[in-house]
Request: fold
Amino acid sequence: MAFGSVPSASTGETKRPPLSPYHVFFFAIFHVLALMAPWFFSWSALGVAIFLHWLTGSIGICMSYHRMLSHRSFHVPKWLEYVLVTIGALAVEGGPIFWVAGHRVHHAFTEDNEKDPYSANRGFWWSHMLWMVCPQKQTFNKEVYERYAPELARDPYYRWLDRNFGLLQVPLGLALLAIGGWSWVIYGIFLRTVLLWHCTWFINSATHMFGYRTFDSDDNSRNLWWAAILAYGEGWHNNHHTFPNVARAGYQWWELDTTWWVIRTLQVLGLAKRVVMPPEQARAKIRKFAS
Reply:
């Protein structure tokens, strides 16, 4: 299938749902305001954007939403789990129940055009962002997606966060405005969010199309170095899809995984328990691959 193509009913494949005006408007507003960044530049604002990109991206999404909640590759005390997941909600990528459920469905039905919410078989742009602006009912139906994250759906705080994650931008925005003015708001909210969106969306799109394969997984997941840099280690996607419950994504010495460094630090401090490491069959394959 060609880069960026989307199957249609005329080819006998999956038909793309119609655009959602609400979703298009939401993403467009963030992108337009992010494009205003050059007119509000300051070095301090850039620093805030970089820090919040790391905090909400690596700590919030990659470590907390993904490795901790979706795959339970490590456990932390409940109070710390709530703090980390709240940081994830600040990324504006959806509430924890929605995000975790969608990701679990992706692993259960990887690249299935009907069941995988962001199947790369439907083209680069579908898996990158069209799945959100052309929403399928089953992906955004609360009663449906909660079935894939039942333990989170039973938690009152996660239910509240799933409904109100967007409201967290208000106190954050007010704090940024009070400290650094509008430049901090533009960089710390809008530019940071848009850049983080695309960095993490590349994991859904690019890493199912480009890169190398260390393991013969049952899908087209690949290890892609530049996606790993942009998404704090998540780009070693072939490793992850082969052993999804493992806390570490980068296996080779050159496979940079900065999110793993934080998990390892928490483990050394005694805060991260039951950290899942690569099994022996993975280590043997890695030794063979590197030799």
Q: What stands out?
A: The chain has a mean pLDDT of 92. The CA atoms of residues 95 and 162 lie 4 Å apart. The chain has one domain: 16-290. The longest helix spans residues 43-70.
